[in-house]
């Protein structure tokens, strides 16, 4: 009888552990492949002037900066842009400004598409949730998920106010686009218009950039080994009870 009771106890413990592992795995977790602008990982920022490997920038305009062209390039705000959010304290933060030019300056008047790609492999795509904060210079034109755009009025009340777009972070959510998450690769586009100031004619002194911080979660797909362990524990418990009877 003692041996049977010990077996029951052991199998019950195994089942409890397996169920706990399964339950923990089912809880939502942050999307590990989705990165804020200007971040290597965690709170480690990309060095000034170094390409941000997680983001790309494409445009129909010509970038005049020496490091301009096709990839996101990190730089803390240059002198003269103290109105940019975070410009006076760039260290110890969870994001930084990126642009198509290393110094953010000399970028042609055009729309610039900043893209970040992330992977939902290993997650239930229909459980994904992404929101966050953004700032831009000049006006943010749109935010889209896999080519599907948020309506302008869903972004912020100051959506069309250029001065406030770059001086504070504004909230956004992709809740209205949740049906467009897919298993595997996904992308988010932020389209920013760069414009000259009133009376300005020389783009060489015209700054532009984007800053984004994400909050995300998604439910991981249950690991096969966890499910197998749960099943093994339950089968062992059932078999032991039958022996007792």
From TrEMBL:
Residues 1-28 form the signal peptide. It comes from the Bacteria. The keyword Signal applies. Keywords: Signal. This is PEP-CTERM protein-sorting domain-containing protein. The lineage of its organism: Bacteria, Pseudomonadati, Pseudomonadota, Gammaproteobacteria, Methylococcales.
């Amino acid at each position: 009888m003692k041996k049977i009771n010990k077996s029951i106890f052991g199998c019950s413990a195994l089942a409890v552990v397996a169920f706990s592992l399964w339950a923990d795995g089912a809880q939502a977790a942050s999307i590990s492949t989705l990165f804020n602008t200007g971040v290597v990982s965690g709170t480690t920022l990309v060095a000034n002037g170094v390409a941000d490997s997680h983001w790309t920038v494409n445009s129909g305009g010509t970038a005049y900066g020496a490091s301009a062209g096709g990839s996101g390039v990190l730089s803390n705000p240059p002198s003269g842009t103290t109105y940019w959010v975070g410009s006076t304290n760039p260290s110890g933060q969870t994001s930084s400004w990126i642009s198509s030019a290393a110094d953010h300056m000399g970028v042609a008047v055009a729309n610039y598409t900043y893209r970040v790609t992330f992977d939902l492999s290993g997650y239930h795509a229909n459980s994904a949730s992404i929101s966050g904060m953004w700032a831009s210079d000049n006006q943010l034109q749109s935010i889209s998920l896999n080519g599907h755009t948020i309506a302008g009025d869903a972004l912020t009340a100051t959506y069309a106010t250029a001065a406030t777009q770059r001086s504070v972070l504004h909230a956004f959510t992709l809740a209205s686009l949740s049906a467009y998450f897919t298993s595997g690769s996904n992308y988010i586009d932020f389209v920013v218009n760069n414009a000259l100031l009133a009376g300005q004619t020389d783009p060489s002194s015209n700054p532009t950039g984007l800053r984004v911080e994400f909050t995300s979660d998604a439910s991981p797909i249950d690991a096969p080994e966890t499910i197998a362990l749960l099943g093994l524990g339950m089968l062992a418990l059932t078999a032991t009870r039958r022996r007792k009877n």
